[in-house]
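Chapter summary example.
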Amino acid sequence: MTGLALLIPLALMMGLIGLVAFFWALRNGQFEDCDGAAARILIEDDQPSVPPVQP
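The structure predicted for these 55 residues follows.
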């Protein structure tokens, strides 16, 4: 029973920390461009990022 007296406040505190971190990320614009990264992988670059190796 004393274990529950420790674990329940600990679980509530961890949940509160997670909620605060989520709202901080939401306020700082972390979720603004959800589709950008998914579409960016489909875009072909005209020039390769690594130059070809010449023998």
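To summarize the output: The chain has a mean pLDDT of 86.
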